[in-house]
Amino acid sequence: MKQVLVDLRPWNKDLAIAALESGADGVVADSAGPVRELGRIPVIAPDGDLIPEQDIREIIISNTEDQAVAMEAAKICRIIVHTPDWTIIPLENLVACGDNVIAVVTNLKEAEQALTVLEKGVAGVLVKTDDPDIVRSISRMVQSGTCGQQLNRLTITAVQPAGMGERVCVDTCSLMVDGEGMLVGNTSSGFFLVHAETLVNPYVAPRPFRVNAGGVHAYLQVPGGKTAYLADLKAGDRVMVIHGNGSCREATVGRVKIERRPLFLVEAESEGQKLSVILQNAETIRLVKPDYSAVSVTSLNPGDVILGKVESGGRHFGMAIDETIIEK
Q: Which CATH superfamily hosts domain 3-143?
């Protein structure tokens, strides 16, 4: 997930409040003291959580020599890059070198450009403005889905009962909407987009904060390109909420419910690759179709097409690795 930092130099209480209330990832200040009187947030300051020039460098790029210095620095530490004349080329060159670049921006348009340059974008932005509304709009834009997921069409090949077992409901501190859910799979090479409980049905009230995600053993995609076992999730963890259109955002886990229920094994394939997931056998458990509508797992038939994600397999403590691992 991209980071949003806010520049509080000189001290601006209204900006600090906007940073805290909008969920910014941190602030840059002359002193951490005034910030900590308002709330808890990472502070880059001489007396803060990160120390300038020690943990993070600020570099002004005005010419090719400055760019060369920045490119070398980005190889070893995170850098905050100021481009006074706002040229995109230095950012493109820096992004091509790695993931350590924070770009200084002054408005929403500059933030959008920096976060999408070379389609990959910088790691984050430092918002330098006197307007708290700009801080809020940039934070909202980042949280609503600049990360983007390339989803795949999966063709159902089999749906069959899988006995009894423990399944996990992931209850978040965010409200999801129709078309949103979480990517869950039996293996780290294939995930199904499991729909949130947003829909009305005759049996139970909607729970738009919940995804009934699957068996305790399953992988769930979480921020940073990582995965977590459903059984390991706990209150305060961060998870990814993904829409069928590929947009995504982070959400905080508020509660995890593990209960014994009847299960279904759902199998599918995409371009010759086989995928599977184990879900609760209930009409309220749904997957997402290519038109972003929801389909109940109890209504699935071979040949139906739903959305998911195919990846190269192999994980070690949730991180993708390049080694021989067979999962089936």
A: FMN-linked oxidoreductases (3.20.20.390)
